[in-house]
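Weekly modeling sync, notes
Attendees: S.R. (lead), two postdocs, one rotation student

Agenda item 3: backlog of single-chain predictions. S.R. asked that every request posted to the team notebook include the full sequence so nobody has to chase files. The rotation student volunteered to paste the first one in as an example of the format we agreed on. Action items at the bottom.

Example entry:
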Amino acid sequence: MKQLIVNADDLGAGEARNAGIFEAIEAGSVTSVSILPNGPALEDALRGIRALRLTGVSFGVHFNISEGKPIAAASRCILGSDGCFRGKRRTQSLLLGRANSELEKEIRKELSAQIMLIQDAGIQVDHLDGHQHVHVLPAVVRAAAEAANTHGISWVRIPEEPCLDFGERSSQVMEEACFFSQHASAARVLYDAMGIHATDHFRGLLLKGELPAETWLDFLESIPVGLTELMVHPGRADAAASGPFAGFSTAAREKELAALTDGRFLAALLKTGVSLIPYPDIGD
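Predicted structure, as returned to the notebook:
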């Protein structure tokens, strides 16, 4: 049997992004969402969750220590001189080595603060993943696994994706997919040892901004038997957006939204018999 979780990342990054994600949920094509705790539109996101007319959607924490402002008190290692996180590249460099005691303490503190912010808002957190996949980088993995156990989170994303033929991709997309897949493969071992569950398969690194709207049938037939997570980034464009999350609400997001909601995805699910589900309760 094939089961598919379609998880939309970055809820809270902006009101336009939120609007697109909720459209995809209401259309029945998104079954899970990752919430950005330090996103500037978090309150709008929480209002939208409470107003949802559909059940059967799982919610997770999209742990972020690379962009925007922290939730916890000021830290020296993970923040720049402006009091914000250091950005994608500098943060990756910082997290690729083994964490010293100070860095590890800061990661744990920020991680706990972000999880508790979402749980204290009344959201049941079913899964944990990382903005720009920081949760599979060496300095973060153990802290993230322990935080998941501490806060009762059963699932973690393992962004390990085979380089299948989905058409031409830029060298940057291919390099990033290989980079995160390699670290995810190593992280899976520790998460598994710590009792944190992960889906059998993952897709989305190679499809970011390029969901297979014309070939959903081929895509669904290609995924293996078992449980697969498909990471997506739907949203509405916002030309007036500014700040570190301005790029999160662009025309590329609308392209993904259209691919998920124009009817072809749901039709392909029916034809292939793939079951669309949220993150399941452990024991289901």
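Discussion: group reviewed the output briefly. The mean pLDDT is 93.
Action items: rotation student to repeat for the remaining queue; S.R. to check formatting next week.
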